[in-house]
Amino acid sequence: SAGIMASHEEFFQGIPAIKYEGAQSKNLLAYRYYNAEEVILGKPMKDWFRFAVCYWHTWRGMGSDPFGGPTRRWHFDDGTESVENAIRRLRAHFEFLQKLGVGFYCFHDRDIAPEGKDLAETNKLLDQVIDEAEKLQKATGIKLLWGTANLFSHPRYMNGASTNPDAHVFAYAAAQVKKAMEATHRLGGENYVFWGGREGYMSLLNTDMKAELGHFAKFLKMAAAYKKEIGFQGQLLIEPKPLEPTKHQYDFDAGNVIGFLRTYGLDKDYKLNLEANHCTLAGHSFEHELTLASDSNLLGSIDANTGDTLLGWDTDQFNTDVKSLTLAMLVVVKQQGLGSGGFNFDAKLRRESTEPEDLFYAHIGSIDAFARGLRNAARLTEDRALDSLVEERYKSYKDGIGARIESGEATFAELEKWVLQQGEPQQRSARQEKFEMILNNYTL
User: Fold this and answer.
1) pTM of the complete model beyond 0.85
2) Fewer CB atoms < 10 Å away: N or C end of the chain?
3) CB 319, CB 365: distance < 8 Å
4) Residue 7: its pLDDT value, please?
């Protein structure tokens, strides 16, 4: 991509372009493990990850929480909802991406541009900001990983968007997604995401769940049809989350969403965008959800963050847990990458972190942690350190009666006869501790 844009003011003065300096470097504004062009298992690191910076937490999250107001305001943001301020914020965003050396970004329609007095005015405001984004992408070579529509913040969506009991709200949500898909398509976005923030319920007493699930499916079918209508080649993605803000969200977890997609015939049009913090909120590990989606050929993209195990809500922290990321990258390596997807930092600074420099430390630290995870996963894969042991555990299905079970030829009667001849199975150790020891030995 081009150098830092000379045609605009420099927003992050005193912070250089972040470079790879190697593991021995003491420079905190440098990568120690992420070397974008270094080839790992036949592919440059940047192509394994396709890192993206999210727009909402990074530039619109000012540190507010349920107990207190904002703790920061970026020096280039005047706090207004004007187009001029939105464009200035956008220019700062692209400078940040360039200095960080990240090639992609993601946005919601309502965090990149202000909302007007009605839908027509809102669409015009979005067009003005998208005009500028298009210019900045062309000038820098930075690309849009995915776009999405915010169907959860405005009071009109308090009872849901596509699952709202009011058809008027359903129609408004459809119109908003239509425009967001057009904007994503215009910017060359490689995916489009649906996160059903309020697609769920607070009480079953006032909810027709069967109707709401049906409406949700109809909405997604309309989106898939519109994708074809406008010639959008990107992947459609659904992001599961079990709860928050609703008590129960219909896109609860990976298994739930996969079942939903198959039930309504949507599994050829949609894949999953999995967020680590959402996985643990659903009572699963990050690698469990990734494995489940990948085994179903439905893992499309990843939101790179983590939660706090001592807190029961979506804290959206930057993930620096190298062991967890090693397990995650084993799944990604096994499926040979995420295709048009990537790793989006859906993560925010802590409320107490208030300086622009903190944004750089947060992203650099997590990028390096993911890079270590990839390096570890590559060595585990090349050495077949775990794979060979797993294969050994399941080798009884390779021949004899196991092969007949695997092929689907065996019957209950045949298996009963075989067991009567063979007797009691031999007890075999699962050797979990051995596997854990090997993982520790490879986690660097």
Assistant:
1) yes
2) C
3) no
4) 57
